[in-house]
Design a protein that fits this description.
The protein has nine helices and seven strands, in the order ααααβαβαβαβαβαββ. By secondary structure, the protein is α/β, with parallel strands linked by helices. The chain folds into two domains: 2-57, no CATH class; 65-233, Vaccinia Virus protein VP39 (Rossmann fold, 3-Layer(aba) Sandwich), CATH 3.40.50.150. Strand 1, helix 5 (92-98) and strand 2 (106-111) form a beta-alpha-beta unit. Helix 7 (141-147) packs parallel to helix 8 (169-181). The structure holds S-adenosylmethionine. S-adenosylmethionine binds at residues 61-63, 86-87, 89-90, 92-93, 110-113, 116, 140-141, 166-168, 171.
Length: 237
Amino acid sequence: TRCRHRVSSLYHKALAWARKMVGGKVCVRRTHAFVFTQCTHGKVDSVLETFDLYAAKNPSLAIDQDMGKILDEAVMRLHPSSVLELGMHCGYSSVRMLRLLPPTGKLITVEMDPLTADLGEEIILVSGFKHHQFQVLTSSSANIIRTLHLFLDQNCRKGLDLVLMDHDPQQYLPDLLALQKEELLCSSGCSILFINRTRGSDEDLREVLAHVTLNPKYLSIGKHLPFILEVLYKKDD
Ligand SMILES: C[S@@+](CC[C@H](N)C(=O)[O-])C[C@H]1O[C@@H](n2cnc3c(N)ncnc32)[C@H](O)[C@@H]1O
């Protein structure tokens, strides 16, 4: 009986994996519909668990649980009051960060696809967060960075404490340079996390790594490889 149970469990795992592999493209509407209908509204843990449940069987763009744990650790360590996320998608990483922000903390999250931005925003609201805690900006990262200072409220006057980049790896370096040029990174210290989705290689991070290694304003470079690169920017001595 035990053997049959194990075979059955292995069979179901293999079936779920195969479904995920042949399941086709990531569908933001399907992700949203699943999370919206299956989670308990107002319960952030339920929202995250429902995302994980969906991602176990379907193609998903949300960061996985290993990346999520690294992100949680960074947010708890840094205690940031102003966070910028580039690449919101359906709101999984946004919700993950929001639940760990201090009471006065604020998240600005950027998504260039208007439908995705609307659906992601709804998921953040369903998780129980209010508009004074977050703002969704529908724009490409390059366009919004130029005017981002307009969206930073009094809380964020000293600049951003944490930036999560999980949008387009081709934009990682240009956006980092733009954030620096616009003086949006907190001069006494801002951590920037770059998600690496190319398993087994750091190709997506090569340009950024070359830049931060040569620039003395980047004090430490932590590689939570193969998933995340974390750099600390500090302008003041
Ligand atoms: C990998 S997904 C983000 C996943 C999300 N961080 C999570 O874990 O739930 C990348 C998202 O970034 C958006 N995106 C891609 N390039 C962008 C850009 N240049 N500016 C803003 N958003 C962008 C895509 O539309 C997509 O929804």
